[in-house]
Specification:
- By secondary structure, this protein is mainly alpha-helical.
- It has one domain: Ribonucleotide Reductase, subunit A (Orthogonal Bundle).
- The protein contains 13 helices and no strands.
- The relative contact order is 0.14.
- About 5% of the residues have low confidence.
- The structure holds fe (ii) ion (FE2) (2 copies).
- One fe (ii) ion binds next to helix 4 and helix 5.
């Protein structure tokens, strides 16, 4: 679905440049609250409006599409519970696996809700502000629908794992709008879409499986906000700022991998193929970057693995998250065992230093 949305976005005329006056990660931080320039009368000047519409019409469209396709989480969950005769009875270990994985989703939705509200508040371009505001409504719906589903499941939700918690706090607390947009819109949203797809495919629990496509259709729009808006903000950043953004991206991606290592047993208990999930996730990520490349500013400041680095990523997936059907020799099991121990050790350090 992401690629479909991106293709549609990319097929249209390319986005023109923004003013680059506030493009650096730190300079893009929300300005101190001041009402001295309020109201910004230029927002209703015809020339300004015409120019803004020419540049950002597709961002505004994301808002209208979101409003048109908005679904009622209470009605959908009720309909699915009736359709399937309630939650399917599951062995306790399967329920616990769902709870561990969906602790990540639940708190990820709350983080996305807060981050999109931050972005909506900070952006000055009305069309981008509208797209972010639409996302705030979507994430609120995702949070309460997932919470209500987990209450129906009737199992205690464990605390968030240390790696995911650290990543979400980083994105919540950074004052850089660029880091918020890259971390949430490009990375976390893409991971969420692929996770929703994988859980739906595993059909471990029919209500949950049928709920996932509703979430997925909204998340694809949220990625669209990053793809359409970020390039013009990235085009004027300095090399140092570019390096800072790439290190931030690297940290988010690395922590996501280690968080997955911690949850490996839960994914396997639910029949989620991590190899396919990571492979498709990486492919979608590269499609997202390619879509950004069509706009002025492109992927400046974004780490895009190519050539040998891309190949190393593929090999790492095969080694760390082999296909379910692939043989797992003793040495590979030993590597996975060591990885699990390292992940648990690092998680303790993260909790200790938090
Ligand atoms: Fe969401
Ligand atoms: Fe989202």
């Amino acid at each position: 679905m992401i690629s479909g949305v991106l293709r549609r976005l990319g097929e249209q005329a390319s986005l023109r440049a923004f003013s680059s006056s506030s493009s650096s990660p730190r300079a893009a931080a929300p300005p101190p609250r001041s009402s001295s320039g309020f109201p910004p009368y230029r927002l209703i000047e015809r020339d300004y409006l015409a120019e803004a519409q020419e540049k950002f019409a597709r961002l505004e469209r994301l808002y209208h599409i979101g409003q048109k396709n908005a679904w009622d989480g209470r009605a959908v969950l009720k309909m699915l519970l009736e359709k399937h005769g309630g939650i399917r009875p599951l062995p306790r270990e399967k329920k616990e696996a769902i709870a561990r994985i969906f602790s990540v989703i639940l708190w990820g939705e709350l983080a996305a809700w807060n981050v999109s509200a931050d972005i909506a508040e900070s952006l000055e371009d009305v069309e981008a502000k509208m797209a972010a505001s639409g996302q705030v409504f979507d994430e609120a719906r995702h949070f309460y629908t997932m919470r209500d589903y987990l209450l129906e499941l009737g199992i205690e939700i464990p605390p968030l794992d240390g790696f995911t918690r650290a990543v979400l706090i980083d994105i919540l607390e950074t004052e850089s709008i660029l880091e918020k947009l890259i971390g949430m819109q490009l990375l976390v949203e893409n991971i969420a879409v692929n996770l929703f797809r994988a859980v739906a495919k595993s059909r471990i629990e029919p209500v949950l499986a049928d709920l996932m496509p509703y979430f997925e259709q909204d998340e694809a729009r949220h990625v669209g906000l990053g793809v359409l808006y970020l390039p013009s903000k990235l085009r004027a950043i300095s090399r140092l700022e570019s390096l800072e953004l790439q290190l931030f991206q690297l940290k988010v991606s690395t922590f996501v991998v280690w968080g997955t290592v911690l949850l490996r047993d839960s994914f396997e208990a639910l029949g989620v193929d991590l190899n396919s999930t990571f492979t498709h996730g990486l492919k979608n990520q590269l499609e997202i970057f390619a879509s950004m490349g069509r706009f002025e500013g492109g992927t400046r400041g974004i780490y895009v693995p190519t050539g040998l680095l891309a190949r190393m990523n593929d090999l790492a997936i095969e080694l760390y998250f082999p296909r379910a059907s692939a043989p797992r020799p003793a040495w590979m099991k030993a590597v996975h065992g060591v990885m699990g121990e390292v992940a648990r050790g690092c998680e303790h350090v993260l909790k200790w230093t938090a």
